[in-house]
Amino acid sequence: MEEVKAKIKKFLSRFFTGHEFQADEDIFALGFVNSMFAMQLVLFIEQEFQITIENEDLDFDNFRTINAMALLIKRKIPVVAGN
Question: Which of 16, 59, 68, 81 is in the most buried spot, having the most CB atoms within 10 Å?
Answer without folding.
Answer: 68
